[in-house]
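F.,

This is the one I mentioned.
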């Protein structure tokens, strides 16, 4: 097996983007539990996100969701983020919370609603220009609840038209990242339900359009690592929304439900050239913390991603290829399992210490007093929005 020393520099390449909305209150359709210390402003969300980076060294970017994170002056917000040691990253557009979007946004039968959805995305591109962000992430809640409710083929045409107009407004260094989700909030059909549909639209749009894979957006039993391998092969994997799930889009802490699946996904990422600064694949979290404290929840998530990345990097590619070539099924499987079962926690603690980071970020955060401070200072936080 590859040694930890051999992967140490590669681990330093890891950049994970945290979602601003993870720091606000969220919940289920049954209840949103308030929590002490919840941010009251966008700035407070960013300050909290900055703590995740300060203690882990893994999360230098914060993704925005518009209009949840709407402010007057985005350039000033970027400066605020930089002062706190992080930068604003992906801009997520939101065409799913206005009453106008009840029957969809870019695929809506009403041209006036489609126009509104397009304009919202164009406004998000303006924000990207103001903050120097490269990625516009589009997730659409579009779909129908009943057969016959709308013409599903016509909706694809409307969607393609709207996406094309948005794509045409991108700058040279911008990307459009199109996220898919198999159901919810629509229950009969969804307009971008799967990687194939997202891929088809991205290919039609051009090189600057890529697919976002949210790990919670598949039917149970789906082989997600196969989708990763395929999209990397096709040069169209643009971003991950990492989270974990037991049932549907649970948005739980990454690696909590199925660490082995996270390992398998990250192995295919490494294997397919999707890891590292120049890979073109953004690692984002898309989570909410309904019952646990939010900053520690995010710290746990980024550490879980790092731990499984380390294990994936430990896979001995030569040994694996040799076993595969010779048709030695069990030996090949052993190579992968050896890496998966390697406990890298002590090595990672040393790795952090050698880079001036706390060996145990979670303990260091809990001892820092930041949580107590925000709980004392902040009263009346916002709801983060629906996931
Ligand atoms: C939809 O379920 C989703 O995964 C999309 O990424 C949204 O933008 C996000 O959740 C936040 O609600
Ligand atoms: Mn998502
Ligand atoms: Mn989701």
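My design for it:
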């Amino acid at each position: 097996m590859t040694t930890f020393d051999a992967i140490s520099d590669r681990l330093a390449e890891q950049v994970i983007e945290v979602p601003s909305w993870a720091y606000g209150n969220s919940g289920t359709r049954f209840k949103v539990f308030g929590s002490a210390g919840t941010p009251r402003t966008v700035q407070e969300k960013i300050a909290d996100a900055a703590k995740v980076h300060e203690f882990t060294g893994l999360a230098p970017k914060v993704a925005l969701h518009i209009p949840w994170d709407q402010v007057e002056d985005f350039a000033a917000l970027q400066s605020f983020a930089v002062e706190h040691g992080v930068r604003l990253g992906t801009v997520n557009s939101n065409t799913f919370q206005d009453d106008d979007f009840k029957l969809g946004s870019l695929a809506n039968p009403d041209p006036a609603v489609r126009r509104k959805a397009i304009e919202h995305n164009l406004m998000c591109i303006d924000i990207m220009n103001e903050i120097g962000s490269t990625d516009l992430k589009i997730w659409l809640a579009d779909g129908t609840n009943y057969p016959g409710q709308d013409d599903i083929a016509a909706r694809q045409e409307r969607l393609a038209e709207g996406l094309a107009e948005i794509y045409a407004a991108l700058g040279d260094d911008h990307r459009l990242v199109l996220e898919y989700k198999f159901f919810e909030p629509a229950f009969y059909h969804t307009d971008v339900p799967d990687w194939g549909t997202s891929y088809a639209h991205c290919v039609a749009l051009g090189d600057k359009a890529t697919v976002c894979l949210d790990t919670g957006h598949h039917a149970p039993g789906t082989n997600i690592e196969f989708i990763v391998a395929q999209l990397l092969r096709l040069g169209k994997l643009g971003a991950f929304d990492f989270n974990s799930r037991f049932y549907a889009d649970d948005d739980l802490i990454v690696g909590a439900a199925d660490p082995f699946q996270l390992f398998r996904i990250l192995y295919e990422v490494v294997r397919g050239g999707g890891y590292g600064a120049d890979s073109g694949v953004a690692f984002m979290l898309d989570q909410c913390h309904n019952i646990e404290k939010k900053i520690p929840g995010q710290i746990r998530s980024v550490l879980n991603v790092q731990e499984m990345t380390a294990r994936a990097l430990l896979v001995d590619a030569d040994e694996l290829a040799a076993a595969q070539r010779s048709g030695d099924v069990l030996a090949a499987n052993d190579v992968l399992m050896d890496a998966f079962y390697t406990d890298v926690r002590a090595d990672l603690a040393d790795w952090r210490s050698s880079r001036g980071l706390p060996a145990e970020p979670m303990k260091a955060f809990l001892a820092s007093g930041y949580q107590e401070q925000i709980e004392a200072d902040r009263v009346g936080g916002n709801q983060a929005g629906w996931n």
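Residues 315-369 form one domain.

Talk soon.
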